[in-house]
Amino acid sequence: MVKESILKTGGTSKKPAAAKPKKKKLYTVIFFNKWCKSCGLCSALCPKKIIKSDELGFPAIENMDRCSGCRFCEIHCPDFSITIKERHPRRRRTNGKH
Amino acid sequence: MLECAEIIRKEYLRHDKKFPHVWCPGCGNGIVMGALLRAVHSLGLDKDEVVLASGIGCSGRMPTYVDFNTIHTTHGRALTFSTGIKLARPELTVMTVMGDGDSTAIGGNHFIHAARRNLNLTAIIINNSTYGMTGGQYSPTTPYGSKSTTSVYGHVEHAFNIAELAATAGAAFVARSTVYHATHMEEMLKKGIEKRGFSVIEIISNCHVQHGRRNKLGGAVEMINGFKQRSVTIEKATKMSADELEGKITIGVLADVEKPVSTEEYQRIVEEAKNKAEIITKAKEKNGVKRYEE
Questions:
Q1: Which of A77, B59, B155, B272 meets the CB 3.0–4.6 Å disulfide criterion with B151?
Q2: What is the pTM of this model?
Q3: What element of type H or E holds A59?
């Protein structure tokens, strides 16, 4: 729905470059499990609530595309075990697979 | 803010031998260390020009992990050691990490006198309101009525307000922050390091293992989220009444004054004394008195 409306406005307006849909930035969250103590701060403080824990208690993310890159977990990790990097995949839509 | 934590990990930490660190899961000391390293990185200071001193306690483990010039000193005497380092090598950036017991109980005298002297130092005080490493005894910042190993029926004494104590003792820069406000803490640390004069940054941290568990404050997540709910900025706090401020944490810059720095004043006195001595020797030569060496 959103995409259609953007396309329509793009067709009618005189500046097609400005109406181009903005690409969403994608991020990768890397957990360095060797230093992690599974305190649960990252999953509790994540504003999108996408960090879940796996069966061993370590943090894991199912759908990495939902990460907004706020780095709140990175700066609040007491064990320095989270790294966030920008991701530039060749295919934009991966349906959550990465 | 740093691009990624990898730079911190590879450049500023002794990552190949000391990690993972000894602090409890969810401890605020790690967050403070990260903010400190990010502040140093964004200020562009060289690793060899920074000194980090610490006393005893959980916070005293911090110099073990960072790759600066570090010194781990006796209980309460961290500020005295860093005073000596600053006077011997004034070009270095000297920072001191202390706990609440380290700075106000055992080293309380050193703390207020370092603030009075106004040396060009940065004191980072991590306040977790208990003696966490030794088993949860009450400290000078334990709130009234809270339980600890040495106050099982509730604490009967009142808590210190470290930041206001430092401001009254004459520190040039006083700020307070919490471990929830990591970016705010980083800014305060940056301002404190840049400030010429004695700067105190009090950071409210959590000790969920010793203090939180005994007082039913919950785990690390609940305590850190509690800081978010309890804290008010200094601009808001000036408009609030005393009853409303009960139990709140005022964060922000509490004092920022310009004062002559004692190390520079000392250097000025040295120059003056040298000039005077030269005048005296010249006068003596004029009168025919020979120099002592001759």
A1: B155
A2: 0.86
A3: strand A59-61
Average pLDDT over residues B45-71: 92
Degrees, nearest 5: CA angle B93-B35-B172? 50
Q: How far is B234 from chain A (nearest CA, A)?
A: 23
Q: State whether B31 and A40 contact (CB < 8 Å).
A: no
What does the pLDDT look like over B135-146, one tens digit per residue? 989 999 999 999
Cβ of B67: how many Cβ atoms within 10 Å? 18
Shortest distance, CA B260 to any CA of chain A (angstroms) = 36
Please check whether residues B248 and B267 belong to one and the same domain: no
Which residues in chain A are contacts of B186 at CB distance < 8 A? 75
Domain presence at residue A53 = yes
Helices within B1-61 (DSSP H only): 5-7, 28-43
Report the domain count for chain A.
Answer: 1
Amino acid at B113: H
Contact A78 B31 (CB under 8 A): yes
The structure tokens 């430092």 sit at: B166
Q: Based on the fold, state whether residues B240 and B276 are members of the same structural domain.
A: no
> Is residue A13 within 8 angstroms of chain B, CB to CB?
no
